[in-house]
Write a structure and sequence with these properties.
CATH topology of the largest domain: Rossmann fold
Distance between the termini: 64 Å
Oligomer: single chain
Structural class: alpha/beta
Number of domains: 2
Number of strands: 23
Largest sheet: 7 strands, mixed
Shape: globular
Strand content: 25-35%
Helix content: 25-40%
CATH superfamily of the largest domain: ANL, N-terminal domain
CATH architecture of the largest domain: 3-Layer(aba) Sandwich
Length: 406
């Protein structure tokens, strides 16, 4: 007899400090009740994004199987809405393994949107641990002073406490210094994920006493499943013949909502079922090294240029605070590398020539950007991941500095 599937309940999720009030009761039921309903968190705005998600994910249709607890919207780097099916076991196991790795259950600060996996797992860990999370109001963006106000009760309390951030939030707190940095250092662990974190940012945080834990994972693995390069207990990571990372273990998703055409991303062999990620990397003596996404590569003049490598190289320039590279079509090179730059001193942004000299002093010429776009901040998609497509779109603006040869 076919699995009738769980009922599916939409949960409207604001980015205000009431987010947990909207999500926690429904999430607690989804994780504890075998009869569901599963939850589908949806953003309140923008209307176009919400409408596209509803059209693609069809909340009036039951979840595919009865063990689904969450249908988590994700667009990855493609912009195409998908719903990842996460079972009760996957979510609760991920929460338990995270606490085991960090030193035990504690209280969490929700500082990222609860419409995406990072925020949802903060709430799920709170449910599993039986603790009440604090919530940061993100309605006006991320503000270090508001972070301090929300975080101090946790840091000053007797319980262990944790927070999950994206790199741009960590950057803002490091730049703010003072009470913001002191408060951040009061957490027992500060999880950083969602994008590659520059090593110098990690070093600066650790030198300031912040308990940084870099994480790697995705919606399909119920969030972070590799902490500081080491997989969580029971999670297995390997690479295929093309160098793509594959992940197996108890936190894997069941599949995709109404998308059987994507089932091929979950492969089975003699080692069991695993998820074929879009990332390239290696595993050396049990330590996972992520080089970047396979689709985040510019092919310029016949040379493969990993964009995350360009990010790191350009961010190492003394005049650059943040950098994000993109590939754009070019009739001479096939593709050219464009980099969006946040200047360390906005009144004196670095020149393209100085950046190219800096990069070519450490890497081959194709890694040197042929254009830079000076920006006030690095663009991100709603979940906090850097938006390379926005950099590519900005490449034709009047603020672009061009270099036609290399």
């Amino acid at each position: 007899m076919p699995d009738p599937g769980s009922p599916l309940r939409t949960v409207d999720v604001p980015v205000s400090d009431t987010a947990a009030e909207h999500v926690l009761p429904a999430l607690a039921t989804a994780l504890s009740d075998e009869n569901g309903p599963a939850i589908l968190p949806l953003p309140l705005a923008p209307d176009a994004v919400r409408s596209t998600m509803i059209e693609a994910l069809q909340p009036d249709t039951p979840a595919e199987t009865a063990d689904v607890a969450m249908v988590v919207p994700t667009s990855g780097s493609t912009g195409e809405p998908k719903g990842v099916l996460l079972s009760r076991d996957a979510v609760t196991t991920s929460a338990r393994l995270t606490h085991e790795r960090l030193g035990g259950p504690g209280r969490w600060l929700l500082a990222v949107p609860a419409t995406h996996i990072a925020g949802l797992m903060v709430l799920a860990r709170s449910v599993v641990a039986g603790t009440t999370p604090a919530v940061l109001d993100l309605a006006s963006g991320f503000d270090p002073e508001a972070f301090v106000a929300s975080a101090r009760p946790l840091v000053d309390g007797a319980d262990r406490c944790y927070v999950s951030l994206v790199p741009r939030q960590l950057r803002a707190l490091l730049d703010a210094g003072g009470s913001a940095l002191e408060t951040l250092a009061g957490f027992d662990a500060v999880l950083i994920g969602g994008a590659a974190t520059p090593p110098d940012m990690v070093d600066q945080a650790q030198a300031s006493g912040v308990g940084i834990v870099t994480t790697y994972g995705m919606t399909e693995t119920a969030g972070g499943c590799v902490y500081d390069g080491r997989p969580l207990d029971g999670v297995r990571v390997r690479t295929d013949s093309d160098g793509r990372i594959q992940i197996a273990g108890p936190t894997l998703a069941t599949g995709y909502r109404l998308r059987p055409d994507l089932d091929g991303l979950f492969v089975s062999d003699i080692d069991g079922r695993c998820f074929a990620t879009a990332a390239l990397g290696s595993v050396d003596e049990g330590v996972v090294h992520v080089a970047g996404r396979a689709d985040d590569v510019a092919v310029s003049g016949g040379v493969n240029v990993p964009l995350e490598a360009v990010d790191r190289l350009v961010a190492g320039h003394a005049g650059v605070r943040e950098a994000l590279a993109a590939a754009v079509p070019d009739r001479v090179w096939g593709e050219r590398v464009v980099v969006g730059i946040v200047a360390a001193d906005p009144s004196r942004p670095p020149t393209l020539a100085s950046i190219r000299d800096h990069v070519t002093g450490q890497a081959a010429a194709p890694f040197a950007p042929q254009e830079i776009v000076i920006m006030a901040s690095v663009p991100v998609v709603p979940g906090g991941k850097p938006d390379r497509r926005a950099i590519a779109a900005a490449a034709s603006s009047s603020d672009t500095t061009n270099e036609g040869s290399r």
